[in-house]
Amino acid sequence: MRLFELKPKTEEIPANLSIAVGDVLRFAASGGRVLGGTAVEALGVFVRGVIGTDGRPLSPAGTPNTVLFRAVAPGSATIDVTFGDPFGDPAAERESAKIVVTVEE
User: Fold this and answer.
1) Which of 14, 23, 39, 62 could form a disulfide with 77 if both were Cys (CB 3.0 to 4.6 A apart)?
2) The domain 3-104 is classified under which CATH number: 3.20.20.10, 2.60.40.2020, 2.130.10.10, 2.70.70.10?
3) With contact defined as beta carbons under 8 Å apart, do 84 and 96 qualify?
4) Paired residues of 1 in beta bridges
5) 19 forms bridges with which residues in the sheet?
6) What digits encode the pLDDT tens for the residues 9-35?
7) pTM for the predicted model, two decimal places
8) Residue 41 — φ and ψ, nearest 5°?
9) Which residue, among 76, 70, 20, 82, has the nearest Cα to 43 in the 3D structure?
10) CB distance 37 to 69 below 8 Å
C-alpha cells in the first residue's frame, strides 16, 4: 500500500491516475467526492492537526485542507476534488478537478 500526495496549487493534477488496491490518495484540497464507480471510496475531508508536547491534539482554526480517497477494489471510479475556501464568498468561483482513477490488483 502506498500514500500518494497531490498538491493541486503547486503541481498539475493528471486527468487519469492508475493505482493499486489499498493505495491512498491525499489531496491538499477543501472538498472531494466520488462521482461514479465503486473502485474508490472517499475517506473524508479533514483539517490537518498536530500532537502537542503534552500528547494532546492541536487543530488550527480554519477550513478543511486535506481530502483522502482509498482504492478498495479493481476497476475505475471518477472523483471530483475541490480547491479554495468553502466558506468564503459564495459568488467566488471554486476550482475543481475531475479525475478518473483506475485501480489495479
Assistant:
1) 39
2) 2.60.40.2020
3) no
4) none
5) 103
6) 667 888 999 999 999 999 999 899 999
7) 0.85
8) -120, 145
9) 70
10) no
Q: Work out the number of other CB atoms within 10 angstroms of the CB of residue 37.
A: 16
Q: CA 17, CA 10: separation in Å to the nearest integer? A: 18
Domain ranges of the chain: 3-104
Separation between Cα atoms, residue 20 and residue 36, nearest integer Å: 18
CA 63 centroid distance within chain: 14
pLDDT of 17: 95
Q: Grid coordinates standing for 65?
A: 485542507
Under a CB-based contact definition with an 8 Å cutoff, are residues 71 and 102 in contact?
no
Contact 105, 62 (CB under 8 A): no
Tell me: the pLDDT tens digits for 34-86?
Answer: 999 999 999 999 988 889 999 999 877 778 889 999 999 999 999 999 887 66
Count the residues in the chain: 105
CA distance 79 to 74: 15
The C-alpha cell at 36 is 461514479
